[in-house]
Write a structure and sequence with these properties.
Elements: E1 6-8, H1 15-18, E2 27-34, H2 40-48, E3 59-63, E4 68-72, E5 79-81, H3 92-95, E6 100-105, E7 108-114, H4 120-139, E8 194-201, H5 202-211, H6 216-235, E9 244-251, H7 252-256, E10 265-272, H8 281-295, H9 298-313, H10 315-318, H11 322-337, E11 343-350, H12 355-358, E12 361-367, E13 376-383, E14 386-393, H13 399-410, E15 416-419
Parallel strand pairs: 5-6, 9-11, 11-13
Antiparallel strand pairs: 1-4, 2-7, 2-12, 3-4, 6-7, 8-14, 8-15, 9-10, 13-14
């Protein structure tokens, strides 16, 4: 009998199985909208045709005595009609069968990834190739360029490798331990997730960012910081205010020159402290831009990598049984993991398809779930001349997204709003 392949969890993935809880979205979603309705059978064939080229995606979560690990799936991964709301919690039983969920609805195909499998960049590569293979099988169109791989090819070993240990610096760097303002809200009792999407022309967004001397990421993070600050000002006495800091994921592949498809992202934070006085938008934008430029460097991020990999190297922790590790990791994450930021602004950047596929693709979206300990999150991706800004929340209050998108309009951007709001 052939022995199944297995993969160690990468360093960023170790925490996710330990901190799982039902009210936390332990998956993220990447979806593509096509010109025609999705054919489920063709999608199934396209999906399972990628198995050899993308082996780390066709896995299930297993628990060993010391650590969790990923084990290859030998049977087919099913495709299902989309249901409920985006990012429905993936239970341990479901993860024990498969760590990805492939869905279709009308013209849209979507993949939801358990966080231990990959990050947004890795997920985008997989979904682009799934879309390309679907179009090839359905319409006979193919183009092996622009990030589209031969599905019968062999993966580069570097794609399957945890690159965190390789690029760890000699000195650990941690985020400043500052108590920040925490967003709160009235939880939806049925765990419904409100999703509001703002669609803006990418060129107009770039122009607006440049007018304020910023990149798109720092501009959007500054708008978010200002909106969070206004929420705090409306709900907290000035003497009790806390710093406003936005968590910004940094794609480490660009800094360290690697194409791994495993997790390879860490966050930096940027914002302002309203206790020091009032800030104009341009002042917030400047602070965010310079903080991001100072921290998102190879040297600084190597130090952050070291801070993340050092505990896993500790002999005592390594030899600790999993049933003891789990509560320890949950406690540490509860008190440290999200304490340094108010909300994520996760910008996947620009995604494009080779010309052969452009006539079939109308939309590309990236949605992350609410944070583990607070009810809002924000994810961004650009494709086909439009930027899709997805704001998700698990609470009833919609003030934050109202302030955020209204501010974009005030700054001169045309914003088209979509929502899954229940009637």
């Amino acid at each position: 009998m052939k022995r199944k392949k297995w993969f160690r969890l990468d360093n960023a993935a170790l925490i996710f199985p330990a901190i799982m809880k039902r009210r936390w979205n332990n998956v993220f979603r990447i979806s593509v909208s096509l010109t025609d309705p999705v054919d489920p059978e063709t999608l199934r064939l396209a999906l399972n045709g990628l198995r050899g080229r993308f082996p780390t995606f066709f896995v299930r979560l297993r628990a060993g005595f010391f650590w969790y690990y990923l084990e290859e799936i030998t049977g087919e991964v099913p495709v299902s009609s989309d249901f409920a709301y985006p990012l429905t919690h993936m239970s341990r039983r479901q993860l024990g069968r498969c760590c990805i969920r492939v869905l279709y609805y009308g013209n849209r195909l979507a993949v939801e990834f358990f966080h231990s499998v990959t990050d947004g960049t890795g997920g985008a590569v997989f979904v682009k190739n799934l879309t390309a293979e679907y179009i090839r099988l359905k319409y006979g169109v193919g183009d092996l360029s622009g990030g589209i791989f031969d599905p019968s090819g062999v993966p580069d070993p570097a794609e399957l490798t945890d690159r965190f240990p390789e690029f760890a610096g000699g000195y650990p760097v941690s985020e400043e331990d500052t108590r920040v303002f925490r967003l709160r809200g009235t939880p939806e009792p049925d765990r419904f997730r409100h999703l509001t999407t703002g669609i803006v022309p990418t060129d107009a967004l770039i122009d607006a960012a440049h007018r304020h001397g910023a990149t798109v990421t720092s501009f959007l993070a500054a708008v978010m910081a200002e909106a969070v600050g206004r929420v705090q000002a409306e709900n907290v006495p000035r003497g009790a205010m806390r710093p406003v800091r936005i968590m910004i994921p940094v794609n480490l592949r660009r800094l360290f020159g690697t194409d791994t498809l495993r997790n390879f992202v860490l966050t930096v934070t940027a914002g302002y402290d309203p206790r020091l006085g009032d800030y104009t938008f341009d002042e917030i934008c400047s602070r965010v831009k310079h903080s991001l430029a100072l921290d998102a460097t190879r040297q600084h991020m190597a130090g952050k990598i070291e801070a993340n990999v050092r505990p896993a190297r500790n002999r005592i922790i390594r030899l600790m049984p999993l049933f003891i590790k789990n509560p320890v990791m949950r406690a540490v994450y509860h008190f440290v993991g999200e304490r340094v930021g108010c909300i994520n602004v996760s910008n996947l950047g620009s995604v494009s398809f080779p010309p052969a596929y452009e006539g079939f693709v109308t939309r590309f979206e990236f949605i992350i779930g609410v944070q583990y300990s607070y009810p809002n999150n924000c994810s961004v991706v650009s494709c086909g001349g439009r930027t899709f800004i997805n704001m998700i929340r698990s609470s009833r209050e919609s003030e934050l997204e109202r302030l955020f998108f209204a501010r974009l309009v005030e700054l001169g951007l045309p914003v088209e709003i979509e929502s899954n709001r229940r009637r």
